[in-house]
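> call design_seq(struct)
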């Protein structure tokens, strides 16, 4: 681990923090650009999403290969999903999963987001597959919520047995 690597990771983390400030910015009648240390605000959700995508994309392009760039990819999925752009969200989440090691605990967030995006696009089977993968991860949070969603999707697909199994697992494991 060299000084150059540390410096690169530090600048990537600073860029990610700045992008996340935009992702989490308030919506207000008076927009600000975070000058003088103020939190950024935007007049519309659309303005905020556009600015967030731009900042997250800069983190991806200028800091590729860093953990910050990988997390920026996850947030690009979140922003697209919030905007109802399910195809872009699915693509962003899949890219995040493709570059994230199978042992990374953040895979949960990528799989959950991908399942939501696929379900919203009408791909229930794809969503079920991602949720199955999610509930079998060694490190996960909100497994009960994932099982509930899995039960819902199986029921919509007409697979009552699988739906019941997912829902019974909630009562058994939690």
């Amino acid at each position: 681990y060299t000084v150059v690597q540390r410096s690169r990771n530090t600048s990537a983390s600073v860029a990610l923090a700045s992008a996340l400030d935009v992702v989490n910015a308030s919506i207000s009648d008076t927009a600000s650009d975070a000058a003088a240390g103020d939190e950024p605000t935007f007049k519309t959700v659309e303005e905020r999403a556009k600015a967030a995508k731009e900042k997250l994309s800069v983190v991806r392009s200028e800091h590729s290969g860093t953990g910050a760039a990988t997390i920026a990819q996850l947030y690009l999925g979140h922003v697209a999903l919030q905007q109802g752009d399910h195809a872009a969200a699915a693509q962003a989440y899949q890219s995040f999963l493709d570059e994230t090691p199978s042992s990374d605990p953040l895979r949960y967030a990528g799989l959950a987001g991908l399942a939501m995006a696929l379900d919203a696009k009408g791909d229930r089977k794809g969503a079920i597959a991602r949720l199955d993968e999610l509930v079998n991860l060694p490190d996960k949070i909100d497994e009960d919520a994932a099982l509930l969603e899995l039960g819902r999707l199986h029921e919509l697909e007409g697979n009552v047995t699988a739906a019941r199994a997912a829902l019974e697992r909630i009562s058994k494991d939690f």
